[in-house]
Amino acid sequence: MKKVILSWVIAICSYGSLPAEEISKEVQAKEFIEYTNKKMPSCGILKIAQDGTLYLKLPDTYAKQLIPHLKLAMPEDEALFLMTVPEYDKDIYGTHIKVIDPSEMTGSYQARDQGRKACFKVTGLYYFDPEKGPAERVYYLTVKSKDLQKIRKSYGLSSLYHDEEFRMIIGVINRPDWEEDYFW
User: Fold this and answer.
1) DSSP state of 144
2) Count of domains forming the chain
3) Which of 169, 163, 85, 84 is nearest to 126 (CA)?
4) Measured by CB atoms within 10 angstroms of the end CB, which terminus of the chain is less buried, N or C?
5) 136 within 8 A of 59, measured Cβ to Cβ
């Protein structure tokens, strides 16, 4: 049985930059995107994970509040299985946007941006079907953010994370053969 599980941990963000073989498909969800931009928080607080990843942390309830609206934007057979994962602590947890990966930094990483507020606008809803791992399908939002682009530029990096739009993973559908309690 397929289970849709809402991602709360960094492991799924290994999909932050899609491998060439992973093709994203846009979900036509104009109303969902409008709702997200009007009713959901559009700012977060920058944090640094133990591994040096700089990310924008959003309220823990962000993705949970999107579930009823995401169900309307998803194919009906997938939406029937939509549920959230119990929250638990990891190095990076909750809804977030990855801003700088430690592998991008050549010098010492400065924590000058930790605790700073940054805002964004949701621009699209997409999914892709990874060839490996527990996820059969991964749903994510793309966002634009001048604040995040400025931060990246201040470190001498390109304005976009891996030269792509910033993204926020909001849900997955697990493969039927993965354990029911496997939470990334």
Assistant:
1) E
2) 1
3) 169
4) N
5) no
**CB-neighbour burial class of residue 84 (10 A; exposed 0-12, middle 13-18, buried 19+):** middle
Q: Which amino acid is at 60?
A: D
Q: Which of 6-20, 24-38, 69-83, 127-141 has the highest mean pLDDT?
A: 24-38
Could you give phi then psi for residue 79, rounded to 5 degrees? Answer: -60, -30
Q: What's the chain's length in residues?
A: 184
Q: Does residue 11 lie within any of the structural domains? A: yes
Residue 67 and residue 6 in contact, taking contact as beta carbons nearer than 8 Å: yes
Amino acid at 36: T
Do the beta carbons of residue 111 and residue 9 sit within 8 Å?
no
- Is 180 part of a structural domain of the chain? no
Cα 176 from chain centroid? 22
Structural domain contains residue 157 = yes
Give the pLDDT of residue 124.
94
| Amino acid 3: pLDDT | 34
**8 Å CB contact between 82 and 71:** yes
| 182 domain residue, yes or no | no
> Quick check: 28 and 184 in contact, CB under 8 A?
no
Contact 14, 128 (CB under 8 A): no
Domain that holds residue 136: 3-174
Verdict on whether the full-model pTM lies above 0.85: no
